[in-house]
């Protein structure tokens, strides 16, 4: 008689223990069983359990796979254990309508999940499933720009580069939603199998906000490539600044919010190494950087370790930057560079009165630099963040949606 009371107390605690730590229910079966207790009355609907994995499913998300929800009832018991029997701890919501593991599940691991839900009419529903989470080697990740919370220029696209080739472009593109507070429609365009950029037909409206909802978790991008990213990113578009370089006139006109802000003398690409024409977006700002001709096909022609106020315009090595090695007389009069746009500057870049410093200080990543009247062709849309050089009809044709 003295042994019955502890046993009863332990039984009363079993539901809480299952909810918090997970209990081993034995071999999992794909079952959806509803019972009605003898004392049940009325016509209340039985509880409906929602799982984020089906029985036998593979490549399940480590963040969503173990989550449980219920409608028309409350969760009474949850057991989530590995194939080896190790319980997964989780937390029940205050209203009993959902349960989630306290941490992401392990990659490439088999789990058994059992859920029991109780309804108001005396119904009890049980659901079981066995599943395996996605392996580390079967994931894909997209690096993207711009970063959350940044302020960028009006030309900044949203650009994703994936670490694996994507074959189901529609599924991946549909899982990325880009919207602007300005109401501008935004469309994606694929550059090959690893990159997709999003932009409106015309530059972003100044002082607007762009929201990027990334819902790639569990999305199959290709065989052996499942997404895991699930986050929302917001960035601000600043004032409008578009600067036009006239290579033949050796001048750059900076237009801010529709008005001429400043005109600066420049030097562009020489006759045998002209600057690209077209709309180019500043993708990177470097207060100082090394420029070696060997990296862009001009081996032995230059190697400058401390180029000041450098702003990248293309992946292939086009910059607009300060130039301290050219004579003052070349700026505004001749083109001497290997394809970059040069502004007068001093070594070390510590003179704020120089044109190179001024333009650097008054530029944002995402600002547009337009080059015209150069003896070269228009830059390719995928050479940097320069999709503005593609007609809108062709841009939309490159969407997978």
TrEMBL record:
- Bias type Basic and acidic residues, positions: 27-36
What are the start and end residues of every segment in region (Disordered)? 26-49
UniProt cross-references to SUPFAM superfamilies, sorted A to Z: L,D-transpeptidase catalytic domain-like
The source's domain of life comes to Bacteria
tRNA-binding as UniProt keyword: no
Q: Which residues form the active site?
A: 321 (proton donor/acceptor), 340 (nucleophile)
What keywords sit in the KW lines? Acyltransferase, Cell shape, Cell wall biogenesis/degradation, Peptidoglycan synthesis, Signal, Transferase
Would you indicate the residue range of the signal peptide? 1-21
This one is known as Ig-like domain-containing protein
Q: Domain L,D-TPase catalytic spans what residues?
A: 241-372
């Amino acid at each position: 008689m003295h042994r019955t009371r502890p046993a009863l107390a332990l039984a009363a605690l079993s539901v809480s223990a299952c909810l918090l730590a997970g209990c081993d229910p034995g071999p999992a079966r794909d079952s959806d069983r509803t019972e009605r207790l003898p004392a049940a009355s009325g016509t209340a609907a039985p509880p409906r359990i929602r799982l984020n994995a089906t029985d036998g499913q593979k490549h399940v998300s480590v963040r969503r796979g173990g989550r449980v929800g219920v409608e028309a009832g409350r969760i009474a018991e949850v057991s989530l254990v590995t194939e080896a029997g190790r319980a997964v701890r989780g937390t029940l919501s205050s209203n009993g309508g959902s349960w989630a593991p306290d941490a992401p599940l392990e990659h490439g691991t088999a789990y058994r999940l059992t859920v029991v839900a109780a309804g108001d009419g005396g119904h009890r529903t049980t659901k079981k499933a066995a599943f395996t989470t996605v392996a580390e080697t079967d994931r894909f990740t997209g690096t993207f720009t711009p970063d959350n919370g940044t302020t960028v220029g009006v030309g900044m696209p949203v650009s994703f580069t994936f670490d694996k080739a994507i074959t189901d472009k529609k599924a991946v593109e549909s899982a990325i939603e880009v919207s602007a507070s300005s109401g501008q429609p935004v469309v994606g365009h694929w550059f090959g199998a690893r990159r997709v950029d999003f932009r409106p037909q015309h530059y972003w409206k100044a002082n607007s906000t762009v929201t990027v909802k990334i819902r790639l978790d569990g999305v199959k991008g290709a065989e052996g490539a499942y997404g895991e990213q699930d986050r929302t990113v917001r960035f601000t578009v600043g004032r409008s600044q578009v600067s036009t370089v006239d290579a033949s006139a050796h001048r750059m006109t900076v237009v801010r919010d529709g008005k001429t802000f400043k005109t600066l003398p420049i030097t562009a690409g020489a006759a045998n190494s002209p600057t690209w024409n077209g709309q180019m977006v500043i993708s990177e700002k470097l207060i100082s950087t090394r420029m070696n001709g060997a990296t862009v096909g001009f081996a032995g022609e230059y190697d400058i370790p401390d180029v000041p106020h450098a702003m990248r315009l293309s992946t292939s090595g086009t910059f607009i930057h300060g130039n301290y090695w050219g004579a003052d007389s070349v700026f505004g009069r001749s083109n001497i560079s290997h394809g970059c746009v040069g502004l007068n500057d001093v070594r070390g870049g510590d003179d704020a009165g120089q044109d190179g410093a001024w333009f650097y200080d008054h530029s944002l990543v995402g600002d547009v630099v337009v080059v015209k009247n150069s003896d070269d062709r228009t830059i390719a849309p995928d050479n940097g963040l320069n999709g503005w050089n593609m007609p809108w009809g062709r841009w939309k044709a490159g969407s997978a949606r």
